[in-house]
Amino acid sequence: MNAKFTKWSFINSDRITTAAISITSLLVLAGISVEQALAVDYTRLISTPSRATINQNLTSPDADLMIKLLGKPGRLTENCSDLTNPQIKRLIVTRNVGPLKATGLKPAIAALDRIFAQVKRDKPELYRQIGTAGMLCVRKVRGGSNFSNHSWGTAIDIKINRKLDKRGDGKTQVGLNELYPYFHREGFYWGAGYSRAREDSMHFEASEELMRRWKAENRI
Questions:
Q1: What is the CATH number of the domain that holds 117?
Q2: Coil, strand, or helix at residue 172?
Q3: Which has the minimum average pLDDT: 24-38, 72-86, 115-129?
Q4: What confidence tens digit (pLDDT) does each residue in 71-118 have?
Q5: 203, 52 in Cβ contact below 8 A?
Q6: What distance in Å separates the CA atoms of residue 38 and residue 182, rounded to the nearest whole number?
Q7: Total structural domains in the chain?
Q8: Closest Cα to residue 106, out of 153, 70, 157, 156?
């Protein structure tokens, strides 16, 4: 090996090491760990993916289908009201699923358990930041005239680091975008695929295809 090249390599290696030590020292003085400095900002906003690239082979179930499969959940109100349908009540459970506690339809809760177990394994920092803005809530779709799928406990709204994603702005949090593949594999439809005005990236719901499968398997 060329002696001049070897000497140059050692010099630059020393400079890189010195720079790394200096940066680490500055972080320590600022009270920031190296892990924190390198952490992904999962609340950062990015453009929602093209609707053509998400929710492949999945459909958002409308209220008519949900009523056909499970019946009316209760009164159609603007805000959350009581679940009064005894058939649905028998299928509702409250359980700790990964980093959060949720109340919803039994097979949907089981699916969430699997989803969050995979996220914990693959993306532990994202897992620690996952929270929820609610699951079961008998009410209208926001700005709509029929039941929301929250009314049957088959939809969940996800918060990242205690922050809600704004509806209808064409943007999504990085964390929600990274959660999407896990929900998709379980058959959940992502609300980022709604029309532009209704875009709701924090919202994940059991798809029509998944609901029909649960019915065929006598799980609902």
A1: 3.30.1380
A2: strand
A3: 24-38
A4: 999 999 999 999 999 999 999 999 999 999 999 999 999 999 999 999
A5: no
A6: 24
A7: 2
A8: 153
